[in-house]
Amino acid sequence: MAERWIVDDEPSERYPIYTRGNVGEVFPDPVTPFSASFAITPYSEPGWRDALVRSGVFTEGEFDPDHNEIIGIFGGYCYLNVSINRISGVRVPGMTPEMIDLALYGSQPGIPPYEPQPGDDDPDRATAAFEWLIWIMTATELPELAEEEALTKQLREERPDLAALSDAELVTYVRRLYDEHFRQLFGQHIYISTAVQIPLGIITQVCAAVGDPSLAMRLVAGLGDVESAAPSFVLWELGRRVAGSDVLTSEFDAGVPGLLDRLEGARGDGEVDTFLGALAAFLREHGSRGPNEWDTTSHTWETRPELALAAVDRMRLLDDGEAPDGHHAERVSDREAVAAEVAALLAGQPEVLEQFQQALASAAVFFPGRERSKTNAVRFIHETRVALHELGRRMVAAGHFGQLDDFGMLLADELDDFLADPAAFTGTLRERRARYDELAALEPPFVFAGEQPPVETWERRDAHTEAVAAAGDVLTGISGCPGQATGVARVILDPADPSALAPGDVLVAPITDPSWTPLFVAASAVVVDVGAQLSHAIIVSRELGIPCVVSVTGATRKIPDGAVVTVDGTAGTVTLA
């Protein structure tokens, strides 16, 4: 088996440590050649560098101009550079490398301890970072995000008639959008994501100082205005429509496969028409979301509405009292009570109290801001996705693609030659797809330093040998959202098929990208294999008020499906009954 994937990078000598932490939720599968060559190298890597330079923490000269260093692809899988992130922890006043590790990588094993390197400590960068820190702690709004939101929504409103464009025009359209917007949108997302570590770090330090580090997660729950949570609230309302209608309930009872066609065939019934209208509005506003939503080859709620209907199917079974609004209100009340409790403990330390209160105010700005910046980028990517899927459908019909997403097997600089002679690429695409499928069956190492372990030594995903947990065993992770719940564990590996998840069950999932979060509403609690304090969907779980424990290594393999478990989202534990 050849070791390198066609778009694999060389590890950085200056910054040698890489991890799947955090990025494993964004790119759970191997990276397609198209995504790497069309988006990551020309736009994402430069956009990330722009964000670090903009913050003052780094200078442009600290990065290799000829090679990716922050985002690396190894054995086909996307990794983030630990070394670079830790330097931010050194240079930003009040932060530490260990705080960065916890925020981004959780409690997964194998992360080597930070070892100072020449140049990590830079007084000039620390001075610039302090000015950035002051801005973060005093900002009350982020107007650029609102402007970018308006831009991406305008792109949706002005989407051309893709069916009327030629193949070359579709490619030209996608290229133009990326050239004009993606580096800025992605850089903005990284800039805000990096900034949110500051108030979180301060809150965590203060809570540790008063004797209860677990309070930190309760202080950043229920902040409101979190864009990534918005779809769950709308899907809940769609579920209420189904629960209140005999005709809709009958259609859903027949199963999600074929459901949309059955509903279209039932048009003329007022309740069906109203539901389909509401669904269409939902897909227009939130259709860019879905599994692996950063990759244009993936389907989203708009391109495959059954993904959203599967979540509605679970929500319709819940009682009205399980509305996410109610859970959110509980988290708001708890957050306010904890804030008052910590403030009382700091009454004799006015300077620390002031810093704590500033951090709370900053968190209320930057946590929602981070999700808005991500939504802006994802909405933009979706406008290019629908154009590429149109191209893919044509190539399938012409016999040049075996499946719609085979465009992902092309490199960016091959597009023009492919359009000129698609048949010439048939063998190449077939070979790359076979290699991609081989890599997708493997479990990439969570972290490595210097050189990745050879791909042929990686374990297959279906060959894990961890011992299954037994009654009385306690699995530990980190708090995703506070609260406690007991229920039947349901191990769900695909958000497109959550049919085994009944109301009140505990959802046990491998990852939690935003496509999973609507399923949180149907669950009493959530347990996740990976994740950290700043995982996007963990922020959403706090907004929805669902007890959640993340970074429970191997949870989907250790917890038997059907076992009764107690999830303590405050303590970060899962106990088998």
Word description of this protein:
There is one protein chain. The chain has 577 residues and is an alpha+beta fold. The protein is 50% helix and 9% strand. The protein has helices at 23-26, 33-55, 82-91, 97-105, 123-138, 143-157, 167-195, 197-209, 215-218, 230-243, 246-253, 259-265, 270-286, 306-315, 324-345, 350-397, 415-420, 426-440, 517-522, 536-544, 555-558, and strands at residues 17-19, 71-74, 77-81, 442-443, 447-449, 459-460, 474-476, 478-481, 484-491, 506-509, 525-528, 548-550, 564-568, 573-576. The chain has an 8-stranded mixed sheet with strand order 7-14-13-9-10-11-12-8, with helices on one face. Strands 2-3-1-5 form a 4-stranded antiparallel sheet. Helix 2 packs parallel to helix 7 (167-195) and helix 10 (230-243) packs across helix 14. The longest helix is centred in the middle third of the chain and has 48 residues, at 350-397.
Task: Give a concise summary.
By secondary structure, this protein is an alpha+beta fold. The chain has 21 helices and 14 strands. It has helices at residues 23-26, 33-55, 82-91, 97-105, 123-138, 143-157, 167-195, 197-209, 215-218, 230-243, 246-253, 259-265, 270-286, 306-315, 324-345, 350-397, 415-420, 426-440, 517-522, 536-544, 555-558; strands at 17-19, 71-74, 77-81, 442-443, 447-449, 459-460, 474-476, 478-481, 484-491, 506-509, 525-528, 548-550, 564-568, 573-576.
